Amino acid sequence: MTIVSPATESAPLLEVAVLHARDAAAATAGEADRLLFVAEPVLGGRSPDPGALSAVLRETDLPVRVMLRTGDDPTLVANPLGTLVALAATYLELGAEGLSFGFLDRDNEIDRRAVWAVANELTGAPWSFHRAFDSALDPRRAWRDVLGAPGLDGVASGGSMRGMASGGDDLIAQVRASPRIAELLIASGGLQADVVPWLVRAGVRQFSVGAEVRQDGSWTKAYVGAAAVRAWRLLIDDAHQLALGVAVD
């Protein structure tokens, strides 16, 4: 008999990182569930121009989350609270479904005060902690520090600053030990096809891809490919069905 965790019983979510309207159209055609709109991904991601968000929203009917980050490091000093709150309000007014943000302190621990301060300004909008989470020194403590944050429904992580190739095994171990982590984890950061079934069986139901759906993995030389998104859609859905004990053709 196949034993399925509560998180696995939920249909999996596929998020695709997009840089502009053309990416958004391709990700939508490829059957993504949600878009993450971000600027300058090679620098860790930045808040995009609000006008560009309007263009993205015209190209899709999918929920769109927007990166909320203005500085070079994940501290609140580099990302002034007033600027972030104003940007968040603008994005939500334009039609964004939610935000992606997160802060560390100078000791590379989760800055709970900063996280709660911004989250409390979002008036109920959902948000996810972006991959700055993987820069925290102690992953287990980092998870304890984010649990219970208002509005949080996802944490993007590859288990290591170097991504899934280095941190996948540890991440799966954490997921297996905690259904709450399994529920919140957005598996990302160099996501590999062969690890998806293991993540799904462990209870993960949220996945995010970016460079993985671009030719040669290039953020700067290639657009999102609809066929590549659809391939990830099928891979994740098949893994989900197998975890439920359903035969896949």
Q: How many beta-strand segments? A: 8
End-to-end Cα distance, whole Å, is 20 Å
Architecture, according to CATH?
Alpha-Beta Barrel
Query: What does the average pLDDT come to?
Result: 91
Assigned CATH superfamily? Copper homeostasis (CutC) domain
Q: Given the structure, what is the number of helices?
A: 10
**What pattern of helices and strands is seen along the backbone?**
HEHEHEHEHEHEHHEHEH
- Main-sheet strand order equals 1-2-3-4-5-6-7-8
CATH topology: TIM Barrel
Quaternary organisation of the protein chains:
single chain
List keywords for this structure.
globular; 14% strand; alpha/beta; disordered N terminus; TIM Barrel; 249 residues
Could you please describe the fold and organization of this structure?
The protein has 249 residues and is α/β, with parallel strands linked by helices. It has one domain (7-243): Alpha-Beta Barrel (TIM Barrel). It has 10 helices and 8 strands. It has helices spanning 6-9, 21-29, 50-58, 81-94, 112-119, 139-146, 164-177, 179-184, 196-202, 226-243; strands at residues 13-18, 34-37, 64-67, 98-101, 127-129, 152-157, 185-187, 206-209. It has an 8-stranded parallel β-barrel with strand order 1-2-3-4-5-6-7-8, surrounded by 5 helices. Strand 4, helix 5 and strand 5 form a beta-alpha-beta unit. Helix 9 (196-202) packs across helix 10. The longest helix has 18 residues, at 226-243. The relative contact order is 0.16.
